[in-house]
UniProtKB/TrEMBL annotation:
Lineage: Bacteria, Bacillati, Bacillota, Bacilli, Lactobacillales
Name of protein: Helix-turn-helix domain-containing protein
Signal peptide bounds: none
Keyword DNA-binding listed: yes
Domain HTH hxlR-type as annotated: residue spans: 5-109
Keyword terms of this UniProt record: DNA-binding, Transcription, Transcription regulation
Matches recorded under SUPFAM superfamilies: Winged helix' DNA-binding domain (SSF46785)
Coiled-coil segments: none
Gene3D superfamilies reported in the protein's UniProt record: Winged helix-like DNA-binding domain superfamily/Winged helix DNA-binding domain
PROSITE patterns assigned to the protein according to its UniProt record, in alphabetical order: HTH_HXLR
Amino acid sequence: MENICQSSRPPFVHALSMIEGKWKLKIIYELACEPVLRYGQLKRNIPEITHKMLSAQLKELEKNDMIIRTEYHQVPPKVEYSLSVKGESFVPILVELCEWGKKITTEEAK
């Protein structure tokens, strides 16, 4: 196995920069569960997040090409969010994280 820790910028650090923070994983999770969500739906699905923080996190995820923001020019304005190809490539990791969560929850209950 290649030693991933020996590069000048370990791949882990780069990958973590895409998803770091309290909310990005939750946003990606919501978009993995429902492929297209509007801002208000995301806010309802993550009630603990403030509007300012949700907006900032969505902008960062879009900047990192993890999500796609689709704006419809209509009245009232409509904006939808979905996972990009890069974001979708993260879903198997998210599934593994969920499986790990189930496993440790079961073990802790014993």
